[in-house]
Amino acid sequence: MADVKVETAQSEKIPKPKKLIGVRHYQFVLMSITFFMSFGIRTSLSVAIISMTEEIPPDPSIPTYPEWDNTDTILSSFFWGYIIPQVAAGQLSEYYGPKWLLVGTMVIASAFHIAVPGMAAALGSTGVMICRIIQGLNQGFLFPCIHNMISKWSPLYERSMISNLVYGNLNLGIAVCMPVMGAICASTAGWPVAFYVYGALGIVWAMVFAIFAENSPSMHKSISEEEKNYIEGSNSVTHHATKKEPTPWISILTSLPVWAILVAGCATCWGGHTLLTEIPSYMSNMMKFDLNENSQLSAVPYFVQFFLGVVTAPLIDRMVEKKTVSITTSRKICNSLASFLPGAALIYLAFLEDLDATLVTVLFVVAVATSVFMQSGYLINVLDVAPNHAGTLLGIINGANNIFSILGPLSVGLLGSDKKDPLLWRSVFLLTAGIYIGTGLFYVLFTSAEVQSWNEPRVRKNVVEKDISNNVQTEKMENTKLSNC
User: Fold this and answer.
1) Which residues are within 8 A (CB) of 39 and not within 5 positions of it... i.e. 6 or more apart?
2) For 340-373, what is each residue's pLDDT tens digit?
């Protein structure tokens, strides 16, 4: 681990660029909007499915399918494709760079979003599931590629802020999508128009990203040397390797911090996607809200989640930079907040008998919004332990975690079919709370933010260790000469 200590010491000597807004900030904005658009596309169906299956549409010309009785299966179908390419996506992003993989992801996912109304008319719910599976396959590249870009562009003491800025926009994408989709679906324009709008915007954004995004600081033509040195000198990434280093599979699979990160992610995916897909259904069946009211209230937790992350992330980075807490401690604190607070809110909600609209909304806000701390917890922890293998590691973790993204929504159907039954929702909330709390404890016990020894290429480690040895020998010789004098 000597190489890690040397790099950390060097990173502390590298001053911040004098320019307040640098090229890296523009890259983070590009990544942020990519998440905003991608999660708008991903979330659309959770709102639209209510309008798609109603018996009386706002306009007689709008097609609806009230005979569909498999809405939970339709909503989970996105993740059938999503889990497949994760590890391969991480590897490909490390070999070839993430930029063009992300462009392809956005174009294909957007095109199949536009195809949803036609496929529904032609093949029914099966057609919608085909579109969603293909979208999932494409968006399976999203997290590994973005994480790879963040690992290249993020200085050590800006990671929490960057993570919340970039990943926070997926929450903003959800929050904006819900009322926008709700308004369009409830209007005489109808739900098909909502799919066309989001699909077209996704294709336009893919072209913008292709023009302005770049894989790393060393590949950007207009970045200053000062900013490039600040980024590359502090994030433990091997920037100038001539080829992709072999992935240390055994070391990754036997690493306890990696398992802690993976387990924490399982809870986030189970809880996050269960709430994402089922809050509109709960509001409709238990609270008796109409579609417009439903979509607006369902969006509130995600707006709060976004702003909570933006406000708290710089404070967390500041605490780490000032050494108020260690990086490992900050990750544990943040992930605990992201696990125990949602768990407590869901337990309260499970036993709530008086379904007051304000109280229910507040509890959903706590359950959803406080999970944002995971962006400064387990999610950014991936960059701490192995920044050189960030894409592959995120692919492994995200692929495994998203099995729980499938199981979460499906568990609702397995626990019961009557969504007007309060006992069904009690079971759903208690199960989700138990997963949050149990995995949160596991993470606190076993995670670490230390750069793992297997992060570094073997050749580079040997060179660094040789340099350290030579420096020690030189220092001893100089001390001997001084004593002789």
Assistant:
1) 169, 170, 171, 173, 174, 177
2) 999 999 999 999 988 888 899 899 999 999 998 9
Residue 155 CA to residue 456 CA, distance in Å, equals: 17
Model pLDDT for residues 257-312, shown as the tens digit of each residue: 999 999 999 999 899 888 877 887 888 888 887 766 767 777 788 888 888 988 88
Phi/psi of residue 234, nearest 5 degrees: -125, -5
Q: Are 311 and 176 in contact (CB under 8 A)?
A: no
Closest by alpha carbon to 260, among 146, 205, 336, 318?
Answer: 336
For CA atoms 136, 396, 435, 303, give the dihedral sign.
negative
**Crossing angle of the two packed helices 142-153 and 378-385, in degrees rounded to 10:** 60
Residue bearing tokens 């609806």: 64
Residue 306 tokens read as 């976004």
- Given a contact cutoff of 8 angstroms between Cβ atoms, the answer to whether 5 and 450 are in contact is no
pTM to 2 decimal places? 0.72
Closest alpha carbon to 327 in 380, 404, 270, 251: 380
Q: Two tokens at 468? A: 């350290």
